[in-house]
Design brief:
heterodimer; A: alpha/beta; TIM Barrel; three-stranded parallel β-sheet; 9 helices; B: alpha/beta; globular
Chain lengths: 255, 372
């Protein structure tokens, strides 16, 4: 299986995870270790970097884990840029998962503010991973301003509905020059495998692991599903047979 | 900065050719069934192993073209502005060493030629020149576009490679598309055929579509001149170039042309032959690789071949073309670039297309320039 590169980092695992919704920090830690995930997003608004015993950060302190602070909670580009700068200072990483969702109910990303913030953050030296709608044109615009990857959603965040946007994900994957990470909506390992089979470079899964009856086992199930999907993609899937139709020959004039 | 050269340099000609030659029947079948074909599938489709599948490829190519373009064929006409040229190109009638009087159209002559083409129905015009920067430089081309842009909806040029800023100026004047063929992607062979003049700079030409993409041109036309080197390898590199450009300059459209070497004054015999079947196979392969790319076929090809191949995936053709400056009305006997093969009139071609169930599209563009 090939190694995924984003900016200056290499990832052996193509399963990215998050820290929300677990029933305890201990359970979160066990689950994230079982997932073998190397990039874990954490809401900046949730952590207290001043406190060395901060419950979340303490449980993420493993050498293979890179933190990916996210800007969840901001509503505008301006707020997002400010949040990212705070996180760079506090957590010592210039990586940021750019999330701007002014709507508190569905948490749907604002494409206009996201593009604005991405452009600004790239100029400020951030590795920007923007969470967005599965909008192929927006993805190219983000790529143009220097986003190091795009993170289109499969379905509304936390909905566990799977790849509802697959038609657009297909286009995004076909066009993209930066890694495509399907973020949000992945509810089961089969969804994750499917995303990998169609050529996504990685998936980000949080709710489906954290809210399961057995998060540790589910984290491991996702680990295998993502590996299986990626291996299948790299091995090239066998074709779905189409039935040929008889019609008048076009090439007779050549003989 | 984006540059195709970086990708191009990671591919070797010999390995590419080997890989195409080693494709098997199973590879071809897999390529035919794959709904998202990649460049490995393209290699399979242009390989010798795909020859027995030509009918199947043609049917699939036809269906895919109809789905995307409907039953339409666009018509365009080339208009040669000048045959002055400082380059030596072994295959071209305009080559510097060809000691024949040269001609560059004046403003009045340009208008006269355009009126003639307009009266035939043409609204898509391809302006062609040699490379003579002192007489037919950017200013000359800009002036030509200015002269005709109120009359001609869609202006394409096929001229010497220019700088990004120069393209931007021309686009501002109403330029729609630029055709720039690499001729061959075989670096050493390229050198042999372009020993002198600015065109001998392989890399500058290779990165021309990048400059065009950065300038924001609406359409870029690619191609190789078949006969100079192995057509399969050259076509693979054209497809590689196409894929790279589509991903990088995503606001631009693309077209592919399929020029085969034609006889001309001071002629060169093809080093590598390409049969009608080969060309048919290649056209299908491009369509099966890419549903959206425009495929163009000129009057270099014969009547019989054109009448049949239009069903395969071709989306635009020319008719009644003259490949010499002033060839339509002004100076019919001036030096031509090459001999055309299909000599039928525009009316005949248009009737033929209708009888075969195609709508002839004369105008499919309007230059909306807020400055005008």
């Amino acid at each position: 299986m090939s190694i995924l590169k984003i900016a200056d980092k290499e990832f052996h695992s193509r399963l990215f995870t998050g820290t929300g919704k677990f029933s305890s920090s201990q359970q979160m830690e066990k689950s994230l270790l079982a997932s073998e995930s190397e990039l874990i997003t954490v809401a900046l608004k949730r952590v207290d970097p001043e406190n060395e015993q901060d419950d979340i950060l303490k449980h993420l302190a493993h050498p293979h884990i890179h933190l990916l602070p996210n800007t969840s909670g901001v509503r505008t580009a301006k707020e997002a840029v400010f949040a990212a700068q705070l996180s760079r200072e506090a957590l010592g990483t210039n990586w940021v998962k750019l999330e701007i969702h002014p709507d508190p109910k569905y948490l749907l990303p604002d494409p206009i503010e996201t593009l604005k913030a991405a452009e600004e953050l790239v100029k400020l030296g951030f590795v920007v991973m923007p969470y967005i709608h599965a909008d192929p044109v927006l993805c190219k615009r983000l790529e143009d301003v220097g986003a190091q990857c795009v993170m289109p959603l499969g379905a509304p965040i936390g909905s566990n509905k799977g790849l509802k946007t697959i038609e657009f994900l297909d286009i995004i994957i076909a066009q993209s020059n930066v890694p495509v990470i399907v973020d949000a909506g992945i509810g089961s390992p089969s969804h994750a495998a499917h995303a990998m089979e169609i050529g996504a470079d990685a998936v980000l899964v949080n709710t489906a692991i954290a809210v399961s009856q057995n998060p540790v086992a589910m984290a491991e199930a996702f680990k295998w599903a993502v590996k299986a999907g990626r291996m299948a993609y790299e091995a090239k899937l066998a074709p779905v047979k189409a039935h040929a139709e008889a019609s008048s020959p076009l090439t007779q004039f050549l003989s | 900065m984006h540059s195709f050269k970086n990708i191009f340099d990671t591919h070797s000609w010999a390995d590419t050719l080997n890989s195409i030659r080693n494709k098997t029947e199973a590879d071809v079948q897999r390529a035919l069934q794959n709904p998202k074909r990649d460049l490995e599938d393209f290699k399979a489709l242009i390989s010798p192993a795909a020859q027995p599948f030509l009918e199947e490829m043609a049917q699939a190519s036809k269906a895919q073209t109809q789905k995307r373009f409907g039953n339409t064929i666009q018509m365009y006409a080339p208009m040669y502005l000048s045959n002055e040229c400082q380059n030596i190109c072994t295959y071209c009638g305009f080559s510097l060493t060809n000691k024949i009087p040269r001609k560059t159209l004046t403003d009045a002559e340009i208008s006269q030629e355009v009126s003639f083409l307009k009266s035939k129905g043409y609204n898509h015009i391809l302006l062609v020149t040699g490379e003579a920067n002192k007489t037919v430089g950017v200013e000359y081309i800009k002036n030509a576009i200015r002269l005709i842009q109120s009359e001609i909806a869609n202006i394409t040029i096929e001229v010497q490679p220019l700088e990004k800023e120069e393209y931007e100026q021309l686009i501002g004047e109403g330029l729609y598309a630029v055709l720039v063929y690499q001729e061959t992607y075989h670096r050493e062979e390229y050198k042999k055929h372009h020993p002198k003049g600015k065109k001998s700079n392989f890399d500058y030409r290779l990165d021309t579509p990048d400059r065009l993409g950065k300038a924001g041109v609406h359409k870029i036309g690619l191609g190789a001149l078949f006969g100079l080197e192995d057509w399969r390898a050259d076509s693979f590199f054209t497809a590689l170039h196409l894929r790279y450009l589509q991903k990088t300059y995503w606001k631009t459209k693309y077209s592919i042309s399929f020029p085969r070497l034609r006889p001309h004054s001071g002629g060169l015999e093809p080093k590598v032959a390409m049969t009608d079947s080969d060309l048919a196979q290649l056209i299908c392969a491009f369509r099966l690789l890419d549903e959206d790319v425009e495929l163009s076929l000129s009057t270099r090809e014969s009547e019989t071949f054109r009448d049949h191949i239009i069903h395969f995936g071709i989306t635009s053709i020319s008719a009644e073309s003259k490949t010499n400056p002033g060839g339509y009305t002004v100076e019919k006997e001036s030096l031509e670039q090459f001999e055309i093969s299909d000599n039928r009139s525009t009316e005949e071609i248009s009737k033929m297309l209708s009888s075969k169930g195609f709508e002839v599209v004369w105008k499919d563009w309007h230059h909306f320039n807020p400055a005008n």
